[in-house]
Amino acid sequence: MDRRNFLKRLAATGTGIALSGSVGTLSKAHAAKGGKEDFGEIKSLKVQCISETSWFDNATLGKDIKAAGGINTNQYDVAYTEENLGGYAALVEVEALDGSKKKYLLDTGWSNDWVDYVFAKDGIDKMLQSKEIDTLFISHDHIDHYFGIESTLKHQPDIKIYFPGTSMPKSFELLKGADFSATPGCPKNSVPHTGELIVTSPDKLYKIQDGMALKFFDCPATLQVRGENVLYFNIKDKGYVTVTGCCHPGILTLLSHARRNFKDGNKNYGCYGGLHISVFENWDPKFDDIIKGVKTFNMQKIGCNHCTGWIWAEKAEQAGLPIVHGTDKNLSYKKVGSLSRAKTSNVYLGNGDEMVF
Amino acid sequence: MTRTQDRLFWLEERQLAPRWSTGVSGLVNLAALIVAVAIVWWVFFSIEGIFKLYTPLLGFSMVIWTLLIILWQAQLFDFWPLSRGFLENAHPLSKGAVFTLITIATYLVLLFGIVWFIIGRLGITYFNWQSLAKYGELGQDMLSTRETASWAMLCLSIPFFLVGVWFMLGIGKDLFHELGQPKFGLANWLFVAVIAIPMYVIFFHPHLGSMFYPKQIYAAVPPWWEAIAQTNSAEYTVGILFCSVIGVFLALNLWDGWPFDLVGRQPWRFFYFALCSLVIGYVIFRIQLYIFDYLWYEAYVGGQNEANFGWRYSHTVTMANFVLVIAIIQNTFFGPAYEKMNRLIGSIIKTVVAIILGLCFAWVYYNWGPTLLGVAEGVSHPSENASAFLILIINIVMIQDLFMDRWPGYQLKK
């Protein structure tokens, strides 16, 4: 802290502070303001992987994006190869301390054809129709997490939705009913949303129920998308668990946020979801740093898939991190990702797998 | 062939004068620069332009190498093979076109011919994205391999830049002065390469070797700086070495070369110049890290975005470049305004102006860049590197200054 005090005196120019304040930052948002949050506890948590296969072949998606101008192109301007598209969705089942259970849907995939298929396979469509699931969390408005919104709304147009405030204008239009499908792989929604819409912002913690909260992080992502909603759970006698769509803020950001802001926040029990590290199975020495950093938090269960990267999961396991293995259930689905077919290490929780905390 | 020691370089000989008042001439040049940057950016780099080279690393590697080639032409090769008569009499637009074409041709031969095509296909895989895709398995799709190869080329430029600056400015004509052009330029260039290539191998090759799965530990040692830098990423060495280059140019443009001019006798001048650049670079690097700690709290191992050590190291270069761009524009276009001032006072004013306007420029870039330039939103966006845009600006100022006699605002004194 001496260093910071020194700098307060020496180097805190008004312009510098204005610069940081106006462009959005992550770390400062993690600082505890007025004491640590206590949002209660739950008894247990089960996460079912409805689909983690957002696309079936990395190289094909890479070519589509490259042809459109690269990774910073507007996601609504890319012509995607339609047969390559899948989507990400997870069913979150929370057991409260009194034993009652409640189900939530995290994300709604991409290709309606694929999402309809996996929803039917796991009975999500019926849970939506019967309102057994009455809340949808959109982690972020990326192609593979949000473009399949019609597949959810057609079963329950008035579902309550938590939606990132930084979503692109077209993503808001899509929610109200819009058709962007003239561009291959881009979405349409013929069922306007009629239910409660909670547009999330980074300045508050959204308590969903005792022991469960949603936190929005304003963080960068690709294809001109920003921000991500993250689910936090506090499991009695175990500690905090994060459930993410892509984890664009970074897993260590989430763990650090809990440590700095939540009561007993240094007890990090586990995580589920995409961790957005070696997304295209490419590697960077920085990813070795993430393994080293995660090890310092002593997590007990790490369930990862989707944009984590098989390479990272394999290297993390080799380094001693508690990676929870999946099964071969995904191989029975009508389509299988090229990596899922090629890899036998099962370090991913695949389509149809469950994880219990 | 005239020996280098027997005549002045063109840059030493030429004398420029503002065409109008210093203010008007500078503003006209600034306007011309803005127009040129906007056209070049939108045609070649923007994701909404024609060539879409801002990936961002492909664009970054291109502008840094072209800047180096521009400086080589002026400082090592004294505009060879064009004659002094051409330099004295040709219209600035003709000179600009000819030398820019030479720059592009040299870039294509050196980078895409030798490094990418020959070395990348027959020697070191990671210099060629097609080779990476051909021999690689996981993660070696074109989108990733193009960035990897561009990163390698970018890293290769840094020791060439730093050592090149040591030779161009720290030695000047003190070595091989008995040679004429192009032997003088070539001899110096080869000497630069002899030092720069081992520097690349030590400071950057370990990073490249760790970019694959499994790590290429039999070809490249694991990053040896990890314990010092808290990261495996070579952004640590990028930060220090690049800031050292920036430090030299800041001194030239803000302090009339001080403190690099304190030692005149060779070989001490060379060693002092090299050491001084590293010390100033490290100070620029370290002070910024302290400021980042203040703004964003401490980075931590494995943190992402602005909590990442590597990103912070890299961001020191970006922020220093914002200041450098202003310093260069100020000195090149508005320099005569400071000439009558006391050196110390002038240097202080120039430094304050460069820092304040540099920070304002950064504010404008990060707030309006997504709209005006089509870059990604956010200071720490992983697909964003403002240095590509900033070095493009420096490229065009250098073309205007070195190749075009600061046309249109300035002209040669006949």
Please, could you describe this protein's structure?
Chain A has one domain: 4-Layer Sandwich (Metallo-beta-lactamase, Chain A). In chain A, 56% of the residues are buried. In chain A, strand 13, helix 10 and strand 14 form a beta-alpha-beta unit. The N terminus of chain A is likely disordered. With 357 residues, chain A is α/β, with parallel strands linked by helices. Chain B has 414 residues and is mostly helical. Chain B has one domain. Chain B contains 16 helices and two strands. Chain B has a two-stranded antiparallel sheet with strand order 1-2. The longest helix of chain B has 31 residues. Chains A and B meet through helix 1, helix 2, helix 3, helix 9 and helix 10 of A and helix 7, helix 12 and helix 15 of B.
Sum this structure up briefly.
Chain A has 357 residues and is α/β, with parallel strands linked by helices. Chain A contains twelve helices and 15 strands.
